[in-house]
Design goal:
Elements (H helix, E strand, L loop, with lengths): L3 H6 L3 H8 L5 H10 L1 H7 L2 H10 L4 E5 L3 E3 L7 H8 L17 E7 L2 E6 L19 E5 L4 E4 L5 H4 L7 E9 L12 E8 L3 E7 L4 E6 L3 H4 L14 E7 L2 E6 L4 E6 L4 E6 L9 E5 L5 E12 L4 E11 L11 E2 L3 E2 L4 E9 L2 E8 L13 E7 L5 E7 L7 E4 L11
Antiparallel strand pairs: 1-2, 1-24, 3-4, 4-5, 5-6, 7-8, 8-9, 9-10, 11-12, 12-13, 13-14, 15-16, 16-17, 17-18, 17-19, 20-21, 21-22, 22-23
Helix pairs in contact: 2-4, 3-4
Length: 411
């Protein structure tokens, strides 16, 4: 009688795939992938990875900042995240790039990191890259230490953007197409916000070229803005991604700007009134709708002094054609007391919060405690401790992915 492993190896790749895809957890599949070359060949095949990601969306593993900060036990992502925390396992700083000091990270997606070159202005002073059309961009694979230098945006395309009107230039990574998962193709999008127009430049790795398009409705959308300085202050919030759309809340009007990556067309969605200074995050809701989390605080009057109770408030926006005044507000989610909070971002099925003790600034610098981060599961609304950090982080670069054994090269 042959061994169980030998019997499995005698099967075709298609039959092996049908068996391996049924393993209950990513940890089980990771161990199988490391067991023998045949299993690894099947598991790392692009078609298998597409099926895998449909069943197991990439979980949030950690925070990329001055170092990789992994999810810690007992969080469900801790086991997969631990492989990334090992010294030398990854290089999220992309130090393998030529002239590394020229580059700064612009964020990551699907196992890749986008970087832009730091330029210099007159007199050798560093320019304001937020308001400058950046020509030098690179995409890196921090796990396998590979990179691709992108061709520069041509002068012809760059001429679509009046530099004197530039308010914000925002490059970011995007998926390539509906069936891109597990493939080495990707897109880079550059959003150029000007006072009079909104232009997007799109690079596709499949064809190796840039093209550009303009949002015709930008001037009408911002016609009634209350922006005190539209020539300097951006109309748009932090960027979020859901339902294959990039979304920005607009600071000065009750709208959300949406870029559909399938059609590369812009639209706007009405949102309920809210205080512009409150932190908010956009997530996917059921039936293709968008949900908004708002970080709020209520004042409860106790016997001695008022107590501030922090919570997350969740609102689901109606689909197009429905009355925007009939938003569905779900339950208010209470947060642990004795903290004030920052929304760090959304990735891998979680919203991540950093809790800062209310008396944090009273500690001497050398004695300040580590700060706790909490993750909110976007399906169950369960709040869990995620990790701790040494510093306060307002907007974090979050890494969602799979264990190293299930992460083939992306470039």
């Amino acid at each position: 009688m042959g061994s169980p492993t030998g019997d499995l190896l005698a099967l075709s790749d298609d039959h092996l795939a049908e068996i391996l895809i049924r393993l209950p957890t990513l940890a089980d599949l990771g161990r199988a992938c490391c067991a023998c070359p045949t299993f690894r060949r099947v598991v790392t095949d692009h078609s298998f990875l597409r099926r895998l990601r449909a069943l197991h969306p990439a979980p949030l593993l950690g925070i990329v900042t001055y170092a990789f900060i992994p999810a810690e036990p007992p969080h469900p992502s801790a086991a997969a995240a631990s492989t990334f925390a090992d010294a030398g396992a990854t290089d999220f700083k992309c130090s393998f790039l030529p002239f590394r000091d020229r580059w700064r990270s612009r964020g990551g997606r699907d196992g890749r990191v986008l970087l832009s070159a730091i330029g210099e202005g007159s007199g050798g002073e560093e320019f304001d890259e937020r308001r400058t059309l950046v020509r030098d961009l690179a995409v890196c694979d921090p796990i396998h230490r590979r990179y691709l230098l992108l061709p520069a945006i041509s002068d012809e395309l760059a001429a679509l953007v009046p530099q004197q009107e530039m308010v914000r230039f925002e490059p970011f990574l995007a998926p390539a197409c509906e069936d891109d998962v597990g493939c080495n193709s990707f897109r880079v999008i550059c959003l150029a916000q000007c006072t009079s127009k909104l232009v997007v430049f799109v690079f596709s790795s499949a064809i190796g070229q840039w093209h550009a398009s303009e949002f015709d409705g930008w001037r009408a959308l911002t016609a009634e803005t209350s922006n005190p300085d539209p020539g300097f202050e951006s109309e748009l919030s932090t960027r979020y991604y859901t339902h294959r759309c990039f979304c920005w809340l607009m600071h000065w009007i009750q709208k959300m700007l949406v870029l559909d990556t399938r059609t590369m067309e812009f639209s706007s969605v009405d949102i309920p009134p809210g205080h512009p200074m409150l932190q908010r995050a956009i997530v996917g809701a059921g039936e293709g709708r968008f949900g908004i989390f708002t970080l709020g605080v209520d004042m409860v009057y106790g016997k001695r002094r008022p107590v501030h109770i922090h919570s997350l408030r969740y609102t689901v926006l109606q689909n197009a054609g429905q009355d925007p005044k009939q938003e569905q507000a779900f339950e208010k989610i209470p947060l642990p007391t004795n903290y004030r909070y920052n929304i760090m971002g959304v990735a891998g099925g979680y919203l991540l919060l950093q809790g800062i003790p209310k008396d944090f600034i009273l500690f001497p610098l050398s004695e300040r405690p580590n700060l706790d981060c909490f993750s909110l599961n976007l399906k169950s609304f369960e709040l869990e401790w995620f990790c701790e950090t040494k510093h306060a982080i307002l907007l974090a670069e979050l890494y969602a992915g799979f264990p190293l054994s299930l992460s083939p090269p992306t470039i």
